[in-house]
Specification:
The structure is a homotetramer. Chain A is an alpha+beta fold. Chain A contains six helices and eight strands, in the order H-H-E-E-E-E-H-E-E-E-E-H-H-H. The first copy, chain A, is 24% helix and 26% strand. Chain A is globular and about 45 Å long. Chains A, B, C, D: It holds the Pfam family DUF4916.
Chain lengths: 207, 207, 207, 207
């Protein structure tokens, strides 16, 4: 059961011929423009990413999408419904690996576009100081965050979404509920692996 | 020479008959709606505010208005040109006292509307964690921040401005320059009392 | 029932003859040295503080005292047991008003010394960026924080305590419990007025 | 010329026979205890780390060591003098890669011990919220931070040092100067690759 969103389901789409030499003249904007149907530069094929996941921590961004009112207060929190590996529906946040030579801002924008579509109009934070850093370990119990596939260090941001959401890829739907509802134990219980804790921390930080 | 914006120039407009009893049924929105020509509830007449300023620290918000690009990066920083007490033009940020029974978010919104007008469309921060807290003392040299009138504790926020600015009140103009320009020593030198340091810290925090 | 610690119980000790003119040559260290049996400069008599409390927000610091292990993780959280106005025992955090011409750091140090004694050896934060700002209003329901006496803006800090605690003044005892215990609903329920929320936020921020 | 500290100089010490299977029963403390002469678990041999550096961003911690006074204010900032690859002396901060299955706190403690010795008595932060995140790219000009070897994402912390420093490994000396001195242009100019910017941001955040 995947806990952080993975590129593995897309690996068949990966065009290895595009990768070599492509970094020579790459610009940061390539990562944004590359966020459509093709995989962006920096993508790894499954054997490379599998090896890396056994060897060193992987950088992730994790985004709590929110709707805000005119005073900046969170009115709704968005969670994603996805089909997991075992066909069960799971509830999660927007997460994704930061690619080679991709900036954190580009990774945040790309992963939001991947899950919510191109007209979500996310308002990216002015500062990259994350509200929390979540450390996922492949060993249950080592930390509050568990990811069976890898050791991941996830920089977590709250991002207001000003536009319309068109769920894409594996995302079946985006559900918006009030902060009070999202904190209900039965709701949080649907987000395993520690994502419930990230939402708690996000709301504690946002007040 | 005023260093933090002051309500003193408006004191003649203050209608004391409005104050008593008005807090009984006040709602937070009153502070926003009250931000036009009349002074909002919580305003003090000049003898009351003068006494308070000799007795205890005063809560302020200080806002660095910015323009951001689609990745959240600061493209422009806004500074205000104002006519000071001695008719000299001075450059400053958006600052204002938090009124009795007014929330910080309301104070941020009200002070932006007061200086930039009603269609500035500020994007208030999701969290009230300030990027810095500036302590202004009436004694030069005690801290990096000096305000001859008072001891003020200013919570500082960077606020993206999405709309149009119509300078109002004592604000003669809003000038937008790039982060590199605003950090030029001759530019920072135009902002006395420590506001230059607040801009430096804002840009250090925003990266 | 007091919610934020108050100087009212001490007002009889206040020596008004010390105040006038004393600010002329004051230094920041006076506030620290002044933290013993006498009230420090900046203290207000009860009629002055009562008037101020009806007129403008009051600046507070609120401290969550903790014990940490060698990796900086919180092992224990401290709460204070105090005798309230109606002789009932109440559980609270370290809170106190910031005095005129007193810096936030001095206020944090003074209030810790007042409640925990002079050999508590607090490790003050390197940055004054608070983990949260709590806005207490005298009207129930306006915010998550309620203080019947006043509108207070409290900058909140987590401060590791490295030394021994000798409870002082109205503080009857300091109780140290693990983060898991302090988050138990029955424990948090003993801290009314929103202090339970400040502890929750402190632990969400500290991870 | 290395910009972030590297494990390459130590690669000959690496005992590959220790790695396989060792993660099965590993505990977080192993990383701390493993910080002496032998490389800790999670260390990679040079071909593995070289491959990873061409494929994905590497997680780093970067530490600004400081001396603080009793109010938590920075009195001195520490910088390291090291012998670079070309025998030139270079000035840097404490930096190091986060190893597989190592927590950020362990990485901070291990890297401080590696450079400053075992009796430095660092006071690790209560929260892992970094004051800044520095993104180093192998392409000059892409960001303010440049590392010819890799794309690194460095979480940056200010850590007070309470004990004695015994420079170790490649570290020749630790130099402590005041915040005013460290910000002098000629001093900052000795720290290439963006470490000067990290110090600027640290001091802007710490005030």
């Amino acid at each position: 059961m995947p806990v952080l969103n993975d590129e593995v389901p897309d690996e068949g789409d990966y065009d290895a011929s595009r990768r070599r030499g492509e970094f020579d003249d790459i610009t940061p904007d390539d990562f944004i423009r590359g966020s459509g149907h093709d995989n962006p530069p920096g993508w790894l094929d499954s054997s490379d990413i599998d090896r890396a996941r056994r060897q060193l921590p992987i950088v992730y961004v994790e985004i709590v999408p929110v709707r805000t009112d005119e005073l900046g207060r969170i009115s709704k929190v968005g969670t994603l419904l996805r089909a997991g590996d075992d066909s069960a529906i799971e509830r999660t946040l927007i997460t994704g690996r930061v690619l080679f030579h991709e900036s954190l801002r580009e990774a945040v924008a790309r992963n939001i576009a991947k899950d919510l579509g191109d007209i979500a109009l996310p308002i990216l934070p002015v500062s990259l100081q994350p509200f929390t850093v979540a450390e996922f370990f492949p060993t249950p119990g080592v930390s509050e965050f568990y990811d069976p596939r890898q050791h991941a260090v996830a920089l977590c941001y709250v991002v207001p979404i000003a536009g319309d959401c068109k769920p894409q890829d594996e995302t079946l739907d985006v559900e918006w509920v009030s902060p009070a509802e999202v904190l209900r134990p039965d709701y949080l219980a649907q987000m395993p692996g520690g994502h419930d804790r990230i939402i708690r921390r996000a709301l504690a930080w946002a007040e």
